[in-house]
Amino acid sequence: MSNKSTPTERRIILKNADDPNYSNKIGCYLREGGYSMLKKSCKMKPEDIGAEVLKSGVRGRGGAGFPAGMKWKFLDRKSGKPIYLICNADESEPGTFKDRQIIHKDPHQLIEGMMIAAYAIQAKQAFIYIRAEFFEGARILESAIAEAKAKGFCGDKILGSDFSCDLVVHRGAGAYICGEETGLIESLEGKRPNPRIKPPYFPAVLGLYQCPTIVNNVETLCNVKHIMEIGGDEFAKIGKPNNTGTRIWCVSGQVKKPGYYEFECGALTLGEMIYDVCGGLLPGRSLQAVIPGGSSSKILRADERFSGKLKDGTEFDWGVEDIPLDFDGPMAAGTMSGSGGIIVMDDTVDMVEAMANINAFYAHESCGQCTPCREGSLWMRKITQRMCDGGAREEDADLLLSVANQIEGRTICAFGEAAAWPTQSFIAKFRDRFEEKVKNPERKKSSLQLI
User: Fold this and answer.
1) 96-152: pLDDT as tens digits
2) Those residues with Cβ within 8 angstroms of residue 143's Cβ, 6 or more apart along the chain or in another chain
3) Distance separating alpha carbons of residues 396 and 90, to the nearest angstrom
4) CA distances from 241 to 55, 235, 236 (A)
5) Which CATH architecture has domain 246-345?
6) Could you please report the per-residue DSSP string of 198-262?
7) pTM given for the model
8) How far is Cα 257 from Cα 278, in angstroms, rounded to an integer?
9) Does domain 33-237 have CATH number 3.40.50.11540?
């Protein structure tokens, strides 16, 4: 537990999210200075906006953490084809629930960020791809877009300029694989969402309808507005080098105050989040493990230690609770911050049951295009389910590890890694629990439910 004072949130994107006097209607947004950055941007050169985003160092908030400005820079602007902008609002990673908060509570912030981004890349058509389960979010967005069009903030000749961009909400069918950008593009084209092979299908060159396309996450696009407000150099001072801006973290599991929190990147550690921000564990419980970035990230055992050097040469010696909450800290500990979904597991959680739950999710969500993923995820589900049902065998841990190792690196998209990494890390960190299942096959239902 941290001895420091409770870290203070720095709410930039979530500034108005929980204000009881603030609504998701355009009137409230305009009273808070909404769309002023779009007005400013429309008077600038598109390339100058891209330069500000590049200087800001903002990294994608959807999971991969790739610099947004660099992604825009890769855009093929010389092909003569139309350019498209897509907002990835699929948000299907278990443990993650930040983007829907923005959509429900401050949709015009997203629309303004998208219109600035569209102007910067000169996209005349933009899409918000939202997962099917977010039917209320889709309704809110469609209403907000209608309000914005009525005020001239999107559609034809935005704010009287020569730039036009139509914005459309497209509802998916509720498939995890559509969070992968090329699978999303396939779905948006009306096809089965089978991810494309990269290369050659890098969206910035060959994306939607084989045209140059930028796909960014909801939180990433909201940051564009704030970058334009303070400038790329000032934005880069928020957080840490290579970890700029704020980050919205979603905390679930056995903590007293689960929820969503926005902090400067690297402003607090994992332990401070669990104990100081979220009030600690439930009474009488102790920390067993943490998944730091959504269910696809590798699990951390509570008693682990890590040492080495960061990219900037800084030496570190951390326990799990010392890991900084940014992009580089979890990566140095052998996992990732991913989508920002922190899942806390106390000593009541049956780790084999938890892994069976995760495996069931990935087996269900595999698109089936790649044989290692299609067959391997199914076998991992079957094995872990059998273990939980009292049929554990001595060879099961090694068999699971073998299957996971044969999935990793052998699939078209990163879904293979998303399915393999949990199994690899659970077995590496909690092999004793798997061996215990063989000795004591009685089923113990875990208190952790991801799906």
Assistant:
1) 999 999 999 999 999 999 999 999 999 999 999 999 999 999 999 999 999 999 999
2) none
3) 34
4) 11, 11, 7
5) Roll (3.10)
6) TTT--TTTS-GGGS-EEEEEHHHHHHHHHHHHH-HHHHTTSEETTEESEEEEEEEESBSS-EEEE
7) 0.94
8) 5
9) yes
